[in-house]
Amino acid sequence: MNIVIAGAGSVGTHLAKMLSRQEHNIMLIDTNQEKLEELESQLDILSVVASCTSIGALKDAEVGKCDLYIAVNPQEELNITSAILAKKLGAKQTIARVNNSEYLETEQTEYLKSIGIDSLIYPERLAAEEIVGSLKLTGSRQMHEFSDGRLQLLGIKLWENAPILNHTLIKMAEKYGADQFRIVAIKRRNHTIIPRGNDELQYGDLIFVVTRPAFISEVFALCGKEPFEIRNIVIVGASRIGIKAASLLEKNYNVKIIEKDREKCIQLADRLKSTLVINGDGRDLNLLREEGIRNIDAFISVTGSSETNILSCLLAKKMGVKKSVAEVENIDYIDLAENIGIGSLINTKLIAASHIYRYTMNVDVKHLKFLTFSEAEVFELEAKPGSKITKHLLRDMNFPENATVGGVFRGEETIIAKGDVQIQPGDNVVIFALQSAIKRVIKYFQ
């Protein structure tokens, strides 16, 4: 696929790295020549040093021949303008990053589509929504819903009190049943495993479980977790993510937001309805004690510094906060943050990539999500008539080694995948896979 990316910021750079590894032809446009030269020396990409709103530059980048144009500059006006121009010049599909939620309203998206923008992405809003979702199930590190919640994915850490510890998946199924949940991935010491029946669950594993909502409490019990109610929340950092998260959370929780910038605090006090705005440093132990940190149920740090967010969450955990959420934009820090027990992690690059990556696959992807803590991806595909996935029982399918089926939606029926399940045409199938297996998985659905 021919892909043009406008903007070599953090999101654009991450997309270029990820998509170039998938053997796509990548052209990157940015005004920063030094940055582009550095990326060209590291990656198999081409670049154009120019503004993405220059018609000449877009022609030099051959957008008229591109299958996908992705505008991810920090400035939304550049993205909107360049996406419209790219579409007029012949780009088959365009995606633009925005920073204003008004653009996501139905009437606005329909208008923007009519003038050339096929899809919009607002990573900070998606991150805020992910934070809200992470507080719904307090025993999990990560939570994700499929088909309006008919199946849920939970990322849960196994400690010494987990009843399923030291069980193989076969033994666990025999003892606790396999009709209601399925372990689809295991993160173990910085490596992700797509498990098979003889794999044993070990102390410290981060397991990813697919289950129906009605069985969530039983899954937590098997993993030794006791969910707790959240009432009081502290947010450190009045970033776009922090402000949006506060506006969503203040409807149902007692929320405080701590921000170092006094002018921002004054503006926030008028903008937020019931959130208490505090001018201070979220790493200040005395301030945290004054604000009753021991009575806080959830601590969220979303400043512009990954290091600050990790440190703040560590301090909060040390002072007794049970649930912490950190924005960690430096991908190299994610394994470190997970291993030291930070809790839930937010990364806007991965969130943006999850939204965009499905447009690069040669099948109809209903849903796609990169799992923050692992190298695995989860996506939902429809089984077409005559496709290979419909030919045999799952146990006889010879499915790629680094992939597995988690669940199946068949009309109103929700099925936890087992070996005796046979996929039927029209089924929506939830797949978990490492990147090395994705191309082979897709062939089963074509």
Question: TL;DR?
Answer:
The protein is built from 15 helices and 22 strands. It has 446 residues and is of the alpha/beta class. Helix 1 (10-21) packs across helix 14 (348-357), helix 6 packs across helix 9 and helix 6 crosses helix 14.
Please tell me about this protein's structure:
The structure is a single chain. This protein has 446 residues and is an alpha/beta fold. The protein has 15 helices and 22 strands. A 6-stranded parallel sheet has the order 3-2-1-4-5-6, sandwiched between helices. It has a 6-stranded parallel sheet with strand order 14-13-12-15-16-17, sandwiched between helices. Strands 7-8-11-9-10 form a 5-stranded antiparallel sheet. The longest helix is centred in the first third of the chain and has 13 residues, at 76-88. The two termini are 17 Å apart.
Features:
446 residues; alpha/beta; 22 strands
Question: What is the rounded distance between the termini?
Answer: 17 Å
Uncertain segments are none
Q: What sort of overall outline do the alpha carbons produce when their principal axes are compared?
A: globular
Strand content: 25-35%
Number of strands: 22
What is the CA-based Rg, rounded?
23 Å
How much is the average pLDDT? Answer: 92
Work out the helicity level: 25-40%
How would you characterize the largest beta sheet? 6 strands, parallel
- What order do the strands of the largest sheet run in, or round the barrel if closed? 3-2-1-4-5-6
Number of helices: 15
Structural class: alpha/beta
